[in-house]
């Protein structure tokens, strides 16, 4: 069973944040938009939703999503934003007050956004 991607499949889980509510909603909606642009299809496998990510020839889907989020945050709030997207990474960052969030938009994929 396959079809086009749909907003209802993106369950956002925030693990840690230091951000205003307005900024938090902006970064979460931007990340959902970025994932939706990269997801070509979804399918149900053994009762679990599997998102099929569009990859370019170099396989840089996560980099494309991170760039989309960073550029949109810089457009809205000015320069200095950073973004990491991946299924396995560690990070220890210094950030400006009220400019940090660590969350998941799709199962198994985490997003870290902060401003320096």
Secondary structure elements and their pairing?
Blueprint lengths: L1 E2 L9 E7 L1 H18 E7 L2 E6 L7 H17 L3 E6 L12 E8 L2 E7 L1
Antiparallel strand pairs: 1-3, 2-6, 3-4, 5-7, 6-7
Helix pairs in contact: 1-2
Question: Your description of this structure?
Answer:
- The protein is of the alpha+beta class.
- The chain has a single domain, classed as Protein Inhibitor Of Neuronal Nitric Oxide Synthase (2-Layer Sandwich), CATH 3.30.740.
- It is 30% helix and 37% strand.
- It contains two helices and seven strands, in the order ββαββαβββ.
- The strands form two sheets. Strands 2-6-7-5 form a four-stranded antiparallel β-sheet, with helices on one face. Strands 1-3-4 form a three-stranded antiparallel β-sheet.
- β3 (39-45) and β4 (48-53) form a beta hairpin.
Question: What descriptors fit this protein?
Answer:
about 120 residues, alpha+beta, Protein Inhibitor Of Neuronal Nitric Oxide Synthase, four-stranded antiparallel sheet, three-stranded antiparallel sheet, 7 strands, about 30% helix, about 35% strand
């Amino acid at each position: 069973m396959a079809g086009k991607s749909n907003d209802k499949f993106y369950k956002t889980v925030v693990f840690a944040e230091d951000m205003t509510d307005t900024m938090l909603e902006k970064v979460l909606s931007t990340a959902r938009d970025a994932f939706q642009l990269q997801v070509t299809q979804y399918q149900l496998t053994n009762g679990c939703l599997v998102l099929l990510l569009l990859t370019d020839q170099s396989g840089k889907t996560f980099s494309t999503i991170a760039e989309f989020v960073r550029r949109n945050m810089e457009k809205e709030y000015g320069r200095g934003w950073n973004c990491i997207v991946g299924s396995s990474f560690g990070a220890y960052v210094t950030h400006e007050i009220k400019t940090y969030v660590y969350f998941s938009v799709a199962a198994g994929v985490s997003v870290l956004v902060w401003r320096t």
